[in-house]
Amino acid sequence: MGDVVVIGAGIAGIxxxxxxxxxxxxxxxxxxxxxxGGHMAQxxxxxxxxxxxxxxxxxxxxxxxxxxxxxxxxxTEVEKIEGETGHFRVTAKKHPRYVDESSCTGCGDCIEVCPxxxxxxxxxxxxxxxxxxxxxxxxxPDIVIRDKEHCIECGxxxxxxxxxxIRHKEDEKEIVLDAASIVFTTGYTVFDxxxxxxxxxxxxxxxxxxxxxxxMISAGGPTGGKLKKLSDGQAPKSVLFVQCVGSxxxxxxxxxxxxxxxxxxxxxxxxxxxxxxxIDVTICYMDIRSYGxxxxxxYERAKALGVKFLRGMPSDILADRDGMVVQVExxxxxxxxxxxxxxxxxSVGIGPADDMGRLAERCGIVLEDTGFVxxxxxxxxxxxxxxxxxxxxxTAAAPKDIPDSVASGGxxxxxxxxxxxxxxxx
Length: 426
Description:
This protein is α/β, with parallel strands linked by helices. The chain has 2 domains: about 5-95 and about 170-185 and about 355-425, 3-Layer(bba) Sandwich (FAD/NAD(P)-binding domain), CATH 3.50.50.60; about 190-350, FAD/NAD(P)-binding domain, CATH 3.50.50. Helix content is about 25%, strand content about 25%. Strand 1 (about 5), helix 1 (about 10-20) and strand 2 form a beta-alpha-beta unit. The N and C termini lie close together (about 10 Å).
């Protein structure tokens, strides 16, 4: 007893685990993906400093893996939570990797010989991966996973693996953990832009989402950082960002602001202009929300670099002879503009994790109408949930940027630590 379970290993979960372990409490960090790191690992840079995302995240991932008080459970999903503060019992299901985690060295020999290429979710579909793979080079733990659904059982990976780590069969395992307190940091999912068919995502090849752009311009991404049109592989002459796709939208059942979209678009616009001064960049917006420290200055920096801000939202994006055509009314001047962008980037909003409803029902926590975890109080106590002993941090509670997610992870960690200490002293 006295341990803490952290559910979700994005940046908020990692920070919570490190803070709790730093006070001498054992932590079980549960992550359903094959690697920890969450969405932050997919980003190229962070605003407003343009620091490398992985340069910030990767050392924390390594610290988690090396901390003797933190046990990482990847490919694992929570099934139910029973008990009360100080005496929780967490039942989780560990999905098979079809790889011996104790002997795999992560050398990648099996990846090189695998002949199967499939959609790569980490690269948001811009790139491909093998049927046996690591999500990205900095993955923690540094071991591969075999995708049994797409594996053709050619046997090459079995033959080339020196330690003999590849398994033909492996069963799911049930894990039961006792905990004094629990921290939910289950993260978010991005809005599926197909819900707005008039904007052309997956209908027009050169309409992509903000996450797809992140992977495209990342130096470690599938294009090596090269900005290009998917239709012909050429660099676009102009880029148009469309804001609030799946945010502040009652028709999409998402009335809230997603918090990060404006600054993410500004960041990527700055990166494009700094590398390609000849590319015209325009951001169509309803309102620019640059609310954080240094954010307004970042907005001014973008304007100084020649990024155009157009207050108006296109009703649809259509194909024409030259590529695409977009009509937008400038609501400040009432002027109707006709644009011909080479590349359109949809700034998709963020929402709760896909299975948050199922998880909340099984774990006895209450959700908002929006699907995020409901805290005790929106202003006074934003980390405690309505079930005592269970806390929430990061984007599981509401849309947040990285600094706010880290701060809330630390706050939830301290509340969980107090519960763990209390049960040890009883």
